[in-house]
Amino acid sequence: MDRAPGLSVRLKLTLSYAGFLMVAGALLLAAVWVFLLRYVPEVIDVRGGLHVPTRSDLVRAFAPRAAQALAFLLVFGLVGGWLLAGRMLAPLTRITNATRLAADGSLSHRIQLEGRKDEFRELADAFDAMLARIEADVAEQQRFAANASHELRTPLAITQTLLDVARNDPNRDADELLDRLHFVNTRAIDLTEALLLLSRTDQRSFTREHVDLSLIAEEATETLLPLAEKRGVTIQTSGDITPTSGSHALLLQMTTNLLHNAIVHNLPEHGTVQVNTAIRPESVMLTIENTGEKLTPQLVSTLTEPFQRGTERIRSDHAGVGLGLAIVKSITQAHDGTLTIVPRPAGGICVTTQLPAARVRGDVPQL
User: Fold this and answer.
1) Judging by DSSP bridges, how do beta strands 349-356 and 283-290 pair with one another?
2) What is the pLDDT of residues 53-90, one digit of tens each?
3) Parent domain of 192
4) Residue 46: is its pLDDT beyond 60?
5) 182 with 315, same domain?
6) Which end of the chain is more exposed for a tag (fewer CB within 10 A), N or C?
7) pLDDT more than 70, % of the chain
8) What would the pLDDT profile of 305-364 be if each residue is shown by its tens digit?
9) Per-residue model confidence as pLDDT tens digits over 198-207
10) Using an 8 Å Cβ cutoff, are 339 and 287 in contact?
11) What's the total number of domains in the chain?
12) Are residues 18 and 101 in the same domain?
């Protein structure tokens, strides 16, 4: 935004200090003046030849000295105020320089203001924290863009290869080609829809309503029960009524993604998945545990990153697009909740989603 030039803050503070000093000096001199006018008589009776100064004599002697004192106070106030303002505003200068560097794209620079805590240091610390978060977000967005480009390029490259093979081999089975093209195109559509859902949750563009997380868990379990039976996985559900507020569709997507991952990334046979809901005084919790391979805490901490998978990609109809837990994390944060993922000692992981509980008045949940 273009603004008209004006006085600097340092100059304003200097003029303020000097003006205050001048006012204080003028008030002091005025007090002395009033004392002279009130307590020194205009005419004094001189006896014995002794000359006593009258009020007029004192005024004539006082006025030049008062003017000199005010001039000295003005110069002293300007010089002292300029130096003092410069010292006080030095931290603000560092913050301004850091802001310019950040505006030019240098997000790695930090102010790191020394000294004890005061207003400037609180501002500098807050600015450093903001820069650190922006730098992390930018790096995450860059990784996301690179991974998304790679993931989107893969089905397109496969489609191009299949079409080139079909063009060079007219006698190739068309049904096989159509099946493979359909599979590749379906994965591309799933990836695109997942990216759109991730963008929607990041923007929090949804309407909140009263929902019961336990009913959502039951709905997701019924939907994925055929997949669990096909893979020989047993699903066990238990828990309390867990009233919260949010988007039913997004929370169902979150629960479905968690349950789908728990089923797919499980033991080859006789695997189990435990779904539990619990209510706390201020929050509700959804916990999903599964059996499976042993994972390290370092690997588990990266599972919510987009396109990150705990094991090598599975070439199947339920392979996923690598955004399942990233979407879960985004939906949880959009609902002001927290997501915790820890490895189980016996193998598999335990995922806990904690959301704010809906306020309850009597027995009827209130939003």
Assistant:
1) antiparallel
2) 666 766 777 778 778 878 888 888 888 878 887 777 77
3) 147-203
4) no
5) no
6) N
7) 79
8) 766 655 544 444 444 556 778 888 888 988 999 999 999 999 999 999 999 998 654 444
9) 666 666 667 8
10) no
11) 3
12) yes
Tokens 């300007």 correspond to 78
DSSP one-letter code for 363: T
How far apart CA 275 and CA 218 sit, in angstroms, is: 9
- Which run of H or E residues covers position 130? helix 119-168
Q: Is residue 332, in this structure, part of any structural domain at all?
A: yes
pLDDT digits (tens, 9 = 90+) for 240-294: 899 999 888 889 888 988 998 899 999 988 899 999 999 998 999 999 999 999 9
Amino acid, single-letter form, for residue 242: T
CA proximity to 358, closest of 207, 206, 208? 208
| Residue 161 tokens, joined | 């290869």
294 and 320, same structural domain? yes
The distance of Cα 355 from the centroid of its chain, to the nearest Å, equals: 18
Q: How far is it, in rounded angstroms, from Cα 32 to Cα 63? A: 11
Q: Does residue 335 share a domain with residue 230?
A: yes
Dihedral, CA of residue 206, residue 211, residue 214 and residue 217, to nearest 10 = -30
**Among residues 311, 315, 313, 308, which one has the least CA distance to residue 329?**
308
CA dist., res. 257 & res. 250, Å (int):
10
Sign of the torsion formed by the C-alpha atoms of 27, 32, 35 and 40: negative
Q: What percent of the chain has pLDDT over 90?
A: 21
The answer to whether residue 119 sits within a structural domain is: no
CB 360 within 8 A of CB 366: yes
211: three-class secondary structure by DSSP: strand
With residue 200 as reference, give the H or E element that holds it: helix 174-203
Give the CATH number of the domain where residue 313 resides: 3.30.565.10
Q: Are residues 255 and 358 both part of a single domain?
A: yes
Amino acid code (one letter) for 125: D
Q: Does residue 236 sit in the same domain as residue 361?
A: yes
Q: How many C-beta neighbours within 10 Å does residue 256 have? A: 20
- Please report the pLDDT score of residue 167 as a whole number: 80
DSSP string, 223-259: HHHHHHHHTTEEEEEEE---EEEE-HHHHHHHHHHHH
